[in-house]
Design brief:
- The chain has helices at 2-22, 79-83, 217-220, 319-322, and strands at residues 30-43, 62-74, 88-97, 105-120, 125-139, 157-170, 175-187, 198-209, 235-247, 250-252, 258-260, 265-277, 282-293, 323-334, 338-349, 358-367, 372-381, 385-397.
- With 404 residues, it is mainly beta.
- The protein has two domains: 2-220, Porin; 235-397, Porin (Beta Barrel), CATH 2.40.160.20.
- Strands 1-2-3-4-5-6-7-8 form an eight-stranded antiparallel beta barrel. It has an eight-stranded antiparallel barrel with strand order 9-12-13-14-15-16-17-18. Strands 10-11 form a two-stranded antiparallel sheet.
- The chain is flat and about 70 Å long.
């Protein structure tokens, strides 16, 4: 899990750098931003471990975190600055404590983020959103001997996802005060067991310092400002994505006990996703989703016994039981560099309980060019069961000239 997320974060940072340099031809085109956030949070007691069945014999109800962030916004004299004047993207670091260092740890989150305006309330007050996506390091994972009560976290490194909504008060031209609420989720995408995940609801207060660009770039370079095409013409684009990952698989015996099957299982998939671009912010469409999961329905093919054993063996299931083809409805929020794609679908070519299901996807696309993007996704089954990561690359046909 650590190598997956670290690689994705590095690739996202490279994509941010490439995009910041390529969106327009004016040399000075970004404004630097620094932010600080403090987040007291409520930890959802999803398992008995959080309700007090732990070494300290006390509930784990709170989480505190402090964050420092560096970001940038496109200069107002640039094409992207005029198209997305209130959007900031960058990287952040957050330190977390759950007041139980021995069993949970004090994870350090490293992530990319993006924030922008949803609606203006007054001249200096707006309603904004922010999302974070990255990795959290330093968890105390489950260990049958050293950490037996923590049956929640199975790896030292877990993915970190946060979505927040906040009010932004522009106190001066350079300083803004922000406050709101958000939801955070930590899990490893089934790359390790156990993987029940940690979920928190946070309140937040923070400040952003955004020094203004005192000298207009076009005057500094004797160039006219870039004028974007505000007349957006709807069009259809086509995304082709290939992805892969590995995952773990568990088995539950007839007596109610369980075990993790040794080894890792490969996952590979392909999506073909026609999308209707309604405007520069939103597109939607259908996706044809093919996936091969080496672990699917394997527990239906136990070779040596159906009772608990540490030496369990399996026959390889037929291909049709490990392959699925589904159709999903997709909606996508489009912003500079990043896009958020959400989907819900149903497999119609499948066989076996592990693939005959509704599925849901959450995807972050990081645009390297107007046509090529990184694809980082997570798939659930039946709205609650973690299935697998989706790490890949995509190509957009008929990308158009209306932004990403």
């Amino acid at each position: 899990m650590k190598k997956y997320i670290t690689t994705v974060l590095l690739l996202c940072l490279v994509a941010i750098n490439i995009n910041a340099k390529s969106q327009d031809s004016i040399p000075r085109k970004i404004i630097h931003v620094v932010g600080l956030d403090f987040k007291p949070a409520y930890t959802f007691p999803t398992k008995s471990f959080f309700r007090g069945e732990n070494l300290s014999q006390s509930p784990i109800r709170t989480n505190l975190s402090g964050h420092i962030k560096y970001g940038f916004k496109f200069s107002p004299d640039s094409y992207m600055g005029k198209m997305y004047p209130n959007t900031i993207q960058g990287i952040g670091i957050g330190y977390n404590t759950f007041n139980n260092h021995k069993e949970v740890g004090n994870p350090l989150a490293v992530y990319v983020f993006q924030t922008s305006r949803i609606a203006s309330i007054t001249k200096n007050l707006s309603f904004d959103y922010e999302w974070n996506f990255g990795a959290s390091f330093g968890w105390k994972k489950y260990d049958a001997e050293k950490n037996p009560f923590n049956t929640i976290v199975g790896s030292k490194t877990n993915a970190y996802i946060n979505l927040g909504f906040l009010f932004n008060w522009q106190m001066t031209n350079e300083i803004a005060l922000r406050a709101g609420i958000g939801l955070s989720h930590y899990s490893n995408g089934n790359t390790r067991y156990p993987n029940f995940g940690v979920n928190t609801l946070d309140g937040r207060i923070g400040v952003i310092w955004c020094p203004q660009d005192e000298t207009k770039s076009e005057l500094k370079n004797n160039r006219p400002a870039v004028t974007p095409r505000y007349g957006f013409k709807p069009y259809i684009s086509y995304d082709l994505i290939i992805y892969g990952a590995t995952k773990k698989k568990g088995i539950t015996w007839q007596d109610g006990t369980g075990m993790v099957i040794p080894g890792n299982f490969a996952v590979a998939g392909l999506n073909f996703n026609p999308m209707y671009n309604f405007n520069k912010y939103f597109r939607a469409g259908l996706s044809l989703d093919a996936q091969y999961d080496e672990s699917a329905n394997i527990t239906d093919h136990i070779a040596n016994t159906s009772t608990p054993t540490d030496d369990v063996k399996f026959f390889r299931p037929p291909f049709i039981e490990q392959f699925s083809l589904g159709l999903s409805a997709r909606a996508e929020i489009v912003m500079p560099i990043f896009s958020i794609n959400l989907g819900i679908g149903k497999n119609f070519v499948c066989r076996g309980d592990d693939t005959n299901s509704f599925y849901q996807t959450f995807v972050l696309k990081t645009h390297i060019t107007n046509k090529i993007f990184l694809h980082v996704g997570y798939q659930l089954y039946k709205f609650k069961n973690p299935n697998n990561l989706m790490l890949g690359i995509g190509y957009k046909f008929n990308a158009g000239k209306n932004g990403f």
